[in-house]
Structure formats: structure tokens, C-alpha cells
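## retry 2 of 3
previous attempt timed out at serialization; input unchanged, resubmitting
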Amino acid sequence: MKLIKNAKIMTMDAQGVLEKGDLLIDQGKIVEIGTNLFEPSAEIIDAEGLIALPGLVDAHSHIGGFDIITGAQDVNEMTDKVTAEMEIADGLDPYSPMFLEALEAGITTSAIAPGSGNVIGGLVSAVKSSGKTMDEMILKKEVALKMAMGGNPKGVYGSRNQLPMTRMGVAAVLRKYFRDVKEYMRKQEEGKTDPTKLPVYDPAMENGAKVLRKEIPVKMHCTQFDMMTVINLAKEFDFEFTLDHAWGASRYLDELVAAHCPILFGPIAVAKGFGESLLIDIDSVAELDRRGVECSLITDGPVYHPWTLLQEAGEVVRAGLETERVLRMVTINPAKVMGCADRIGSLAKGKDADIVLFHGMPAESVSAYAVMTLVNGEIVYRN
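## retry succeeded, writing output
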């Protein structure tokens, strides 16, 4: 049992901000939050002068599956443009140093996705940054089905003179996949009364069926005018989706608001150039938030370091949005998008004790840093 005392607690919950509050933790959960709490058997953590936040949540990452130094990777199965049957958990190394780097930045959960080399890459999982095995670390195994528009699949398959080598080719692959899934589902329905019509079990089709039944959304790597293609595909096949990266969103503000799709923006450290990275317009995040769009910030780790998440948050503050609203983009907003808000993303009684104590206000002070990170009530990082 632990008792965090005298912190400025930003709950990201209905309780708002407690200027001098306490958090009582037991068996990996928050059991009480308030002021002047007392528990004689608890280990006291003195947080005087510190800010307590829910563990940060990175809504789009590949940590544990890529090694930037050696180039090794286990989460980009670029042997077929459609690999919807893949499961990200099978390719992640729980002992990857990337997870420790995430804890140092205060990131306690990441939505880890297959890479974007394929049009359809496989299942995304919500993964905590601490644990001995992947089974222990996975918070939610099926968060979304990863898909990708634009330059990545074009670059992989176009260089082989294979479909898709164009943006219209990417869209055609997606249409064919969803038509195949609908046919698979039709045969399954017929098989309920006539077993001879049941299709052979196909995990790639099963994962697509979860999307069309709206059990999970599509997680779409998407930028620039590809966003409009995705919106039209979603209307055609009636699925829910997030737009990940979303560079160039400022050109489609009205359309994105009307689409009611979450925006997972970033990273912003990419060099402005041509094609995908022509317009890195993080100020669009502030405007979309004002218009009621669920926005989150992402690192695309390990392409960019975990601590860039708070740099991005700082840029949205600089664009004119209030600090607390921006901090929601790295806590409760991504937790909601991942379907995990019942356990993470805010500090409230009954939720997982994933907590970060900061020196300085994140997103507001450039010198802010994590002093201590807890996952499931255990101290897993000390500065």
C-alpha cells in the first residue's frame, strides 16, 4: 500500500485539479483520492511541490518491435499487401530498452501497431510500459486493425512493380478487402442454417468482420488528401476509424468535424518536405479540439523519442489551447480512443494506479520532467 501526499493532482476526471491532494494505492489500484488522507500502514511518497498526472498514453507507437540502431524489426510483415491476420503482440520484445525510455518520459501505456509497409498490417494492442512478459503487459489485445494510405505501401510495393504503386491502387486494395469480408460474413450468416455454406475459417477475414461489426475501429496511417479517401471509404463500407498522423488536417477541418473521427496527430519533428510531410500543421489540433473533435498526440516511437510527446503538447499550448485541455490529449483522450478509459487515462477511484509525478508543469514548462513513474501501483522509474 502506498500513499502519495501533497501533490497537485490533475485528475483528468470530474474531480478536476486538487491543488494539494493525496492518492492512496493498494493492489495496483487507486483506492482513494482526496485531501488529508491517512493510512498508517501505507508507504508514504512525499510529492510536495510535484504535479501528479495519470500515466501518459501514446496513441500510436511501434516500440518494442523496431530497433532503430540495428534496423531489426518484427512488426512490419512486408511480404503481402494484406496481412490482416497478424497480431502485434507476437512481435514485441518486453525487454526492449524502448519501454524504459517510455517510462522515463512518463508514458505508461502505448497503442502499439504493426508498421505501415502494408495496406493492412494487422491487429493493434494497448501495451503497458512495464512487465516481464507480453501477456503481463498487454492491457487490451484488440484495439484496432492497422491500415495505411499513401507513401508507405506505395513505396514498398511500387518498388517491386506490384499493386499498389499508386494512391488509387491503395484504395482499390482496401475496397477489395472489405468486399471480401462482406462476402465472408454473408457466407457465415448462411452457414447458421446450412453448415455446408460455412466458409473456411480465415483470421484475416475475421479481423475485418470485427471492423464491419464495429467491435474495433480501423487505425489508419493517413495524411493530406488521403484523409478524404478514408472518409469516403468509411461511408461506403460503414466502419469507424481514427486518422493517425493527420498532417494537413487544416485543409479539411469542416470535413473532419463532420466525419466524427478521432484525430491522432504527430509526430511533429519530421522535416517538412514533399508528399506526406508537406504540411506539419499542429495548430490544426487546437482548432479541431475547439470544434469538439477527440484529439490525441502521438510519437510514432521509436521513430521519435517518447519525450517528444510533451514537446508536441507544448506546441498545442503555444497554438492557444489551455494546458489542461492539451494534457487530455496525452491521457484520457487516447485512453478513450483505445477503449481503455475504464482503467487508464485519468486518476479516479478504482482505476489502475498508473501515475507520473512531474517536477514542473508538462506542456507548459520546457524544463518539466518526470520524477517518478508508477505502473499498477509499483514504482518502475525514479529520476
